[in-house]
Amino acid sequence: MFARPQWVILLLLVVAGLVWWRAPGGERQLVRTALIMGTLVELKVFGTNEDELERATAAAFAEMRRVEALLTSYRPESEISRLSRAAGPFIVSEETAALLQRGQLLARQTGGAFDLTLGQLKQVWGIESDRPLVPSQAELQAALTAIGPEALQIEGRSVSKRSAELQVELGGIAKGYAVDRVLEMLRQAGVTSAAVNAGGDIGLLGAKQGQPWRIAIQHPRKTGELLTVLPLVNRAVVTSGDYERYFERNGIRYHHIFDPRTGSPARGCQSVTVVAADAATADALATAAFVLGPQQGLRLLERLPEVEGLLVGRDGGIFQTSGLQREEP
Ligand code: ADP
Ligand code: MG
After folding, report:
1. Among the CATH numbers 3.40.225.10, 1.10.3720.10, 3.40.50.2020, 1.10.3980.10, which is that of 83-161?
2. E strands along the chain, which residues?
């Protein structure tokens, strides 16, 4: 009796219905990667129209390259490099002025642990060059002279440095800012679910197929082991650690997050993960809490609204803010 045509038609209708139901709108995931800001950037987007997703990811990567060209201190023609060379007041774009203002606000909120004026320190340590070195005390003192948040004044688009030598360095916030811009481009393109990971600076748009994104946080010492998993929706999560870019001399690890009080790499933490509403804030706060060390860093993150954090101290002790939601890996 199954051979009767009406049954065959009914069966076909049921199968067609099931296929249609299984793919409501046919949502797909597109993953694209690119090398930008010296790091591998991974972009994951969900949507129904593959062509639109391709266009949106291409525009997002282009935006990230634009931000890099504007803010990097590795290219002599970037706005930040020209500002660093300027002797007198220097006019920057609205965008750069706004980001410098945000950096200055974060400098105040963190008691100067986050500091945009540390460019010379990076140079004397050669920390991201092929030949990093431990500078002499005299060199360190010279690089620390006349730096600090108060050495940078921003009025409208006009930026003044207290000394011509002052080197502005946005390395502690630029990647987070670029991640925020990526999410904004995707939002404008109509994307409602996406994740961008720029070497540990992660921005999340919406949820992942109706569930929170599950963000795995790496253990700073045990390679391949996870510290925890954070379930997150519409958040940014940024990790600063001493384990990605560093060199060792006489058993001491030197890395690229500087304590503005000493001019040397901060010693209190192995890693700091910060969750915040936007990646620029999370990026700067992760750097600042790393500088402050686990106790003071924890107090800072606890005090700020809409901010959570997880800190690993120099001896491996784990500290977390009271509102942090975590899952076992
Ligand atoms: P990553 O680049 O690995 O994401 P961070 O976000 O912590 O790490 O940024 C480190 C960069 O921030 C350094 O390369 C330097 O440019 C800058 N930086 C280092 N120390 C400080 C500090 N105390 N305040 C602000 N920026 C800093
Ligand atoms: Mg940072």
Report:
1. 1.10.3980.10
2. 28-36, 39-47, 90-91, 152-155, 158-161, 193-198, 201-205, 213-218, 226-232, 236-241, 246-249, 252-255, 269-276, 308-313, 318-320
C-alpha 42/C-alpha 139 separation (Å) is 39
Over the stretch 151-171, which tens digit does the pLDDT of each residue have?
A: 999 999 999 999 999 999 999
CATH (residue range 19-72+171-199): 3.10.520.10
pLDDT, mean of residues 28-51: 96
* DSSP sequence for 266-294: --SEEEEEEEESSHHHHHHHHHHHHHH-H
Residues with CB under 6 A from ligand 1: 113-115, 118, 122, 169, 171-172, 175, 200-201, 240, 244, 256-258, 260, 283, 286-287, 291
Strands 226-232 and 213-218 come out as antiparallel
Q: Distance between CA 57 and CA 234 in Å, rounded?
A: 18
pTM: 0.91
For residue 134, which amino acid is it?
V
For ligand 1, what atom is nearest to the CA of residue 169?
16
Find out if CATH 3.10.520.10 is the number for domain 212-329: yes
Distances (CA, A) of 48 to 29, 51, 163, 192, 208: 9, 9, 54, 11, 14
